[in-house]
Specification:
This protein has 4 helices and 15 strands. It is an alpha+beta fold. The radius of gyration is 19 Å and the shape is globular.
Length: 272
């Protein structure tokens, strides 16, 4: 077991259940969510997930179902998950994790690890020009290694693929900004921001735990020194079912030439 560093939950929220649950996207206002808001929505759902009580509490996710039954909370990289939004009473505030759709990872983050600001996306999807990416360096229109290729972008897309398909932490590290924040989006809207170090821990929890089949480029658009990218994460869940989650992100070029993630979103369908 690799050293997970500074995570010291000293708890075990790993609840493995025989029957795979159905995890539906949730619709709550973006940003920090109070526990009393969870209670209100749970009453409206009226036990939608009855029968999966080990994984759901009043219709909301609790804990996680890891592949490894011996896994516990201290093994995660990220140190500020909230495993049960009901714990602690109405004064507990949380945000929805980008990994809510992944049953083997916690569904919430403690709000003390994020910032909700007035962030606005610099440009929308339709503003950009379509960019044709091919991991062999070949473009049907331009040929091999043509000068019109965006080498920095191609390298970043390869790093994304290697980070998930080869579990390469160095590749993911090159994609995380050296400073500043990463904006977390949900349903195409801004949700909250987190500092770059925390985002690095968070994305490593996904890449190092998921049984990834493939992580491929769906579509790319470029505008000035940035790009919007849609990736498709194909993986097997802990019950052996093949699943797909879309990752949408904004990559921006830093001064050293490397393109880094400044926006990130997960969805069960394409956001753009």
């Amino acid at each position: 077991m690799p050293d997970r560093g500074r995570t010291t939950y000293n708890t075990n929220s790993n609840v493995r259940i025989d029957r795979a649950p159905t995890i539906n996207p949730i619709s709550v206002p973006p940003g920090i969510v109070r526990t009393d808001e969870f209670a209100l929505k749970a009453r409206r759902q009226d036990g939608t997930f009855r029968g999966n009580d080990a994984f759901f509490n009043n219709g909301w996710r609790t804990g996680y179902c890891h592949y490894n039954t011996g896994w516990n909370d201290n093994f995660f990289f990220f140190p500020n998950y909230c495993f049960n939004p009901w714990q602690g009473g109405v004064n507990v505030n949380v945000v929805i994790s980008p990994w809510y759709l992944y049953p083997f990872l916690p569904g919430y983050l403690n709000c003390n690890t994020v910032v909700v600001s007035s962030y606005r996306s610099p440009w929308i999807w339709n503003t950009g020009a379509v960019y044709v990416y091919d991991d062999r360096g070949w473009d049907n229109r331009w040929g091999w290694n043509d000068s019109r290729r965006n080498v920095d972008l191609d390298n970043s897309l390869e790093d994304l693929r290697d980070g998930f398909e080869r579990y390469d932490r160095r590749s993911l590290g090159r994609l995380v900004p050296r400073n500043g924040q990463v904006a977390i989006m949900r349903d195409g809207r801004y949700d909250y921001s987190m500092n770059a170090d925390d985002f690095y821990d968070l994305i490593n929890d996904l890449s190092s735990n998921a049984e990834t089949n493939s992580y491929r480029v769906e579509q790319v658009r470029t505008y000035r020194d940035s790009a919007r990218v849609v990736m498709l994460h194909d993986y097997n869940d802990p019950w052996g079912r093949r699943q797909r989650v879309y990752h949408s992100m904004l990559l921006q070029r830093e001064s050293r030439g490397q393109m880094v993630i400044r926006e990130f979103e997960t969805n069960d369908r394409r956001a753009w």
